[in-house]
Amino acid sequence: MIGLAGAYAFLPFVDNEARIFGDNERGRYDSQPINFIDGDEPPMLLLQGMDDDEVPPHNSEVVAERAQAMDGTAVLKLYPGVGHSSILLSFARGRPNQVPALRDTLDFIAHPPAAPATGK
Hints:
Blueprint: E1 2-4, H1 17-21, H2 25-30, E2 44-49, H3 58-69, E3 74-79, H4 84-89, H5 101-110
């Protein structure tokens, strides 16, 4: 699984999220991908710009922590000075870019980390 500046844990709702997901306990729970991490996921690569003002870095940080706490594998790459659009554009061909997100992704795909051995 490769996550690119994803919104994984974005409570409290701030914009139209309550209208979209439902402003009730189920809507708040079901809208948060972090709530579905149980340790059976494939290894994750989470790429996040530290200067992202669209999706705060906290989203990727807590998902990595949760996956590791559940005996899963999560590799977190935080890029200083990188915002939301910069990390996305780092995958575009022909654009000069100093963000190594594409290289990190290709390396992860070529050499995925082994999932920890668990008693599950």
